[in-house]
Amino acid sequence: MAKLGHEVVGIDVDPRKIENLSTSRAPFYEPGLEHLLEEVLQTGRLRFTTDISEAKGNSVHFICVGTPQKKGENAADLTYVDAVATGLLPFLSPGDLVVGKSTVPVGTASRLAHLINLEHPSAHLIWNPEFLREGHAVADTLRPDRFVYGVSDGSEDNPAVAVLDDVYAVPLQAGTPRLVTDHATAELVKAAANSFLATKISFINAMAEVCEASGADVTGLADAIGLDDRIGRKFLNAGIGFGGGCLPKDIRAFMARAGELGADQALTFLREVDAINMRRRSRVVELARNLCDDSLLGQQVTVLGAAFKPESDDVRDSPALSIAAQLQLHGAVVTVTDPKALPNAARRFPELQYEECTRKALEGADMVLLLTEWQEYCDLDPYEIAGLVGAPRMLDGRNVFDPNKWRAAGWTYRGLGRP
Ligand code: UDX
């Protein structure tokens, strides 16, 4: 927002985050973010505080807090969203705009609009879902694919629309499409988009299972069906499945909400999407055992990658770490390496061993698993690292390597859904 030219105050309850952000240190790894922070902090248009009363006098208020999965349930935890909406109430002025970015169950926006309008009848609430991807957050924010505005009456003429158009003037003028709809549709756009993406990944992983049973190759299959424009090649990479702080919990929260609305039958397929996804993790463990002559006991295993995807240090619901932990439970001695995510990984899975240096992590390994496709792992030379490991066995959980090249270099290579 500050880069787009606005005066911005960022508010959080965590004083450490605020202190770090104020000195352009991001609380997580995201390419380009610290550089951008430095640039805008110098302009004086951005500052950070823990004091929510500093929202007073500003005319647009963004709610950007998380909606994690509730413990032991599928539903989303709305504690933080509700706390921000309620916390803002004393500091809103007539005509202010509140913009919801968080991913919420359908019905939340109308409930919050009601709550806000009880005290501030002239204030507006727009639900404006966030579609950014981790690892691409800066680019996705400055130039998104589209804007979706959910307004109370679903009308382009709603006065709140022009206010948000001013906020997004730069990307709108650059041609970013913008759709105006009602609160419920805007909330559902986000749930539907993430469900579609998750379904696409589980679809190709289901095909990988059939390929494994029939000796076919899922990568060639994905290339061929992906050339059909109606299907498209993106999000058709079979492998260890999806993780992270969004897709897994969003499809579960969506099913839970549909259940509350009496529409659970419409989303039973998402249960299957989730099940196929979780099955990938057990399949990798099974393949790993096969590769090690049916026993992982005492095997020295190196896992390349801990983050749920490359260019991120996020390990929330990371399939890589979940597989590493399962291998260890089967008796393997597991060493995990990752360019950015090791501190987060060690906090979540203290029982695993971690090594920062890739070469050291590979030394003497009886088996290597590539589980997060960081570029530096994709660039590994099979001839060179064959000399480091104890036994050249590669389980490629993301199907990024050329099997022929690895086999020619003396490796026993296994991909997922590949012969
Ligand atoms: C996702 C959505 O893409 C984004 O629009 C939304 O705002 C938040 O959730 P993100 O969680 O950052 O973004 O990651 P994404 O790039 O979607 O990847 C999610 C998971 O799917 C990762 O674990 C990734 O490795 C996996 N994936 C992705 C596959 O297994 N195969 C693919 O073909 C693509």
Automatic annotation (TrEMBL):
Enzyme Commission code: 1.1.1.22
SMART domains: UDPG_MGDP_dh_C
Leading EC class: oxidoreductase
Chain ranges of the UDP-glucose/GDP-mannose dehydrogenase C-terminal domain: 302-403
Cited InterPro entries: 6-PGluconate_DH-like_C_sf, NAD(P)-bd_dom_sf, UDP-Glc/GDP-Man, UDP-Glc/GDP-Man_DH_C, UDP-Glc/GDP-Man_DH_C_sf, UDP-Glc/GDP-Man_DH_dimer, UDP-Glc/GDP-Man_DH_N, UDPglc_DH_bac
Domain of life, per lineage: Bacteria
Pathway of action: Nucleotide-sugar biosynthesis; UDP-alpha-D-glucuronate biosynthesis; UDP-alpha-D-glucuronate from UDP-alpha-D-glucose: step 1/1
MF terms in GO: UDP-glucose 6-dehydrogenase activity
Reactions that this protein is recorded to catalyse: UDP-alpha-D-glucose + 2 NAD(+) + H2O = UDP-alpha-D-glucuronate + 2 NADH + 3 H(+)
Keywords tagged on the record: NAD, Oxidoreductase
Pfam families: UDPG_MGDP_dh, UDPG_MGDP_dh_C, UDPG_MGDP_dh_N
NCBIfam families registered for this protein in UniProt: NDP-sugDHase
UniProt family annotation: Belongs to the UDP-glucose/GDP-mannose dehydrogenase family.
Name used for this protein in its record: UDP-glucose 6-dehydrogenase
Organism listed in the record: Pseudarthrobacter defluvii
